[in-house]
Amino acid sequence: MTPLEYDRERIWHPYASLGNPPPVLHAKSASGVAIVTADGLKLVDAVSSWWCVAHGHNHPAIVEAIRRQSEKMCHVMFGGFTHDPAVELAEKLAAIAPPGLDRVFFADSGSISVEVAAKMAVQYQNALGHPERNRLLALKGGYHGDTSLAMALSDPDGMHTLFKGIMTKHFFAEKPTISTWGEWNDADAESLRRVVDEHGGEIAAIICEPVFQAANAMNFYHPEYLREMRRICDERGMLLIFDEIAAGFYRTGPLWAHSRANIVPDIMTVGKALTGGHMTLAATLASGKVADTISNGRPSAFMHGPTYMANPLACAAACASLDLFAKGDYEANAKRIESVFARRVMPLKALPNVVDVRILGAAAVVEVRRMPAQSDISRVIRHSGVWLRPFGNFIYSMPPLVADDRTIDRIGFALMNLAASPPGPPPEDGDFHE
Questions:
Q1: Cβ pair 93, 322 in contact under 8 A
Q2: Mean pLDDT, rounded, of the chain
Q3: 281-304 pLDDT, tens per residue?
Q4: Domain spans in the chain, listed from the N-terminal domain onward
Q5: Which CATH number does the domain 63-327 belong to among 3.40.640.10, 3.40.50.2300, 3.40.190.10, 3.90.470.20?
Q6: How many Å apart are CA 68 and CA 64, to the nearest integer?
Q7: Which of 418, 375, 360, 414 has its CA nearest to residue 393?
Q8: Positions marked catalytic
């Protein structure tokens, strides 16, 4: 069998059937903003390989950092040991994190960092003598990952409804409806306040993706909503958790999406672009108040510890990635990409199949009434030379932050062609493209 034949028969892909798998391309190499396939197709990676390849593929500085570290030590358990890359990375994260978030827990992936954040909130409340506060309040339209607790905190009517029976029950407020650029109306947070009034005694923390709800709703919302969250948490003794995994590291413009609200959470999760998309790694950052309270409780140890926690190779990659962020003007890059998207993509609102176009920083979303057929998606990808991975009713791009204007123009052309394609049949229940 050829590699593609073996893959089709034996290997599951994300959110895909093994009995009737969607087509896949055979990637052979990647560099800069492009992925090259075995048949010689060169594709602009318009989704940054799920939003993590911020500096482009195979960045020499990050590859070199991994190589250097591999000559010293590829892995050592973090239980009973520490090492230079972990300490260096913790220092770098603390230096750029919101004020006071200087206690660092390293995790294998974004989903695990969310699980860690939720467990921190519950253990914090337990240490304060509130074991009954063992639920979280999240937002409909949100997405926090695929592991069980992360699923339980994601939109209850989203892609994981099949697994409701094994999920812990949490509380959900209606998703924010006022856009980032709209005029704030306090009524937008009424559902949030109502849930807190009804269940506040059981809630350890509120968690959300600040400003940008990504993989479920592709929703950009008003930063005033975050300020209302902060006020409620302070008033009711809850912690505030911001999941910056998708929106952080300049994706929406500033370094942290929540900085538009000029507030600081108690816990924050980061991942994806942390290593520039070169290795899997995430981190949960907590305040001294959270860490000290947990440490003074019973048990005093925080009860989590992944096998590959603080993997030295991944930490070295992340240190190199953060150095690149520090050296470049990525906020200006995001604003530049936003302006090109606005010129190229915003006119797509006029297409009959388009419901809405939303753009913020280096993220452009085209919401369509009906998604084109898979054959049309594949045709546009090959014709335009742009890799897109639509899902639900969203055709979107979150390109590498180093993409130049010509590349963004090319992505805009692909988005236009796909949005204008004949729509395909309605997706089956649970048929997501990612």
A1: yes
A2: 95
A3: 999 999 999 999 999 999 999 999
A4: 3-58+329-419, 63-327
A5: 3.40.640.10
A6: 6
A7: 418
A8: 15, 143, 243, 272
pLDDT of residue 165: 87
Whole-angstrom distance, CA of residue 415 vs CA of residue 402:
19
Place of tokens 């975050």: 226
pLDDT above 50: residue 432:
no
Tokens for 214, please give them: 């990504």
Q: Do domains 3-58+329-419 and 63-327 have the same CATH topology?
A: no
Place 162 in a pLDDT band, splitting at 50, 70 and 90. Answer: confident
Q: Is 45 exposed, middle or buried (0-12, 13-18, 19+ CB in 10 A)?
A: buried
Query: How confident is the model over 356-380, as pLDDT tens digits?
Result: 999 999 999 999 999 999 999 999 9
What is the number of other CB atoms lying within 10 angstroms of the CB of residue 168? 13
Other CB atoms within 10 Å distance of the CB of residue 346:
15
Q: What is the pLDDT of residues 73-106, one digit of tens each?
A: 999 999 999 999 999 999 999 999 999 999 999 9
Tell me which residue has tokens 């520090």: 326
Give the CATH number of domain 3-58+329-419; options: 3.90.1150.10, 3.10.20.30, 3.40.50.1970, 3.30.1050.10: 3.90.1150.10
pLDDT of the residue at 13: 96
Name, in order, each residue with C-beta under 8 angstroms of 299's C-beta and a sequence gap of 6 or more. none
**Model pLDDT for residues 259-270, shown as the tens digit of each residue:** 999 999 999 999
Q: Between 110-127 and 288-295, two packed helices, what is the crossing angle to 10 degrees? A: 60
